[in-house]
UniProtKB/TrEMBL annotation:
It holds the Pfam family Acetyltransf_7. This is N-acetyltransferase. PROSITE patterns: GNAT. It comes from the Bacteria.
Length: 139
């Protein structure tokens, strides 16, 4: 009989679980292999002030993380990072880009860049999470 136990760190156990799922996915759908990439921005003091991480697969790309440091918002850096990620996703064969964001993060920012909401859930505390998408490149 299997022993089930709790764990809370993001270390070796989580890596093994994620690896097991990746192996299953690769067997079930060979096109699911990811082509991950990202871009980062530093200021004149060589401090990291923003970045974006993207997972491209199956003709689409997922914006996994886009972050701009406080003090650097509303200066166009997020837009530059997003446009750079979108352009690279198209080069890598994406015709669809998707992401998720909370209502306190950046849904209006993404809508301004042509993303549309295709799903949402409202958490019991009133926070809403949105799933968004954008068609890009030649479809």
């Amino acid at each position: 009989m299997a022993e089930i136990f709790e764990f809370s760190d993001r270390g070796e156990l989580l890596s093994q679980i994620e690896d097991g799922l990746r192996q299953f996915n690769a067997r079930a759908n060979p096109d699911i292999a990811t082509d991950d990439f990202g871009f980062a921005a530093k200021n004149a003091q060589d401090e990291l002030i923003g970045g974006v991480w993207v997972r491209a697969r199956m003709g689409a790309a997922e914006i996994d993380t886009l972050w701009v440091a406080d003090g650097n918002k509303d200066k166009g850096l997020g837009s530059k990072l997003l446009r750079k990620a979108e352009a690279e996703a198209i080069v890598r064969g994406a015709s669809l880009i998707h992401l998720n964001t909370f209502d306190f993060q950046a849904p209006r920012f993404y809508q301004k860049h042509g993303y549309e909401i295709f799903g949402e859930i409202c958490f019991p505390n009133g926070t809403t999470k949105f799933w968004m998408k954008k068609q890009v490149g030649i479809i």
